[in-house]
């Protein structure tokens, strides 16, 4: 048996694994939102004017994607659906308190535009667009 008959399938498997790993890393990187450092430090942190307290914002994802929020700030925050002045806040998703360095995940099964904010610091607002 020729040596190439072993090598070619092995190379194909390696390429396949590399491709799947790259795709998974790419997918996770594109469904992650950071609660940025300093978001809760005052009533008017810089990220409010640039709408980047949740970053990236807005985040555009595909139906069925799971978004992971990571609290990169030194204060506690929430990820709560809706807008601060609305009466339906938290009805679609509500992380409750996210401690620093902790995460919250939510899977979006329907298309649409989802507003969300932090109950503790309502000036921090974000949006997830599900296509
Ligand atoms: Cu907050």
TrEMBL record:
Coiled coil: none annotated. GO terms for cellular component: periplasmic space. Signal peptide: none annotated. It is found in: Periplasm. Its main location: periplasm. Residues 54-131 form the Blue (type 1) copper domain. Pfam families: Copper-bind. The chain crosses the membrane at residues 6-26. One of its GO terms (molecular function) is electron transfer activity. Its cofactor is Cu cation. It comes from the Archaea. Binds 1 copper ion per subunit. Keywords: Copper, Electron transport, Membrane, Metal-binding, Periplasm, Transmembrane, Transmembrane helix, Transport. This is Copper-binding protein, plastocyanin/azurin family protein. It comes from Candidatus Nitrosotalea okcheonensis.
């Amino acid at each position: 048996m020729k040596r190439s008959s072993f090598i070619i399938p092995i190379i194909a498997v390696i390429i396949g694994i590399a491709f799947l790993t790259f795709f998974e890393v790419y997918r996770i990187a594109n469904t992650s939102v950071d609660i940025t450092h300093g978001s809760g430090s005052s009533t008017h942190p810089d990220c409010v004017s640039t709408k980047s307290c949740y970053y990236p914002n807005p985040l555009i994802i595909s139906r069925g994607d799971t978004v992971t929020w990571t609290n990169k700030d030194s204060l506690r925050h929430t990820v709560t659906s809706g807008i601060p002045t609305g009466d339906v806040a938290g009805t679609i998703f509500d992380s409750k308190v996210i401690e620093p360095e902790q995460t919250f995940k939510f899977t979006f099964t329907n298309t649409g535009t989802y507003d969300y904010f932090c109950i503790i610091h309502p000036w921090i607002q974000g949006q997830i667009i599900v296509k």
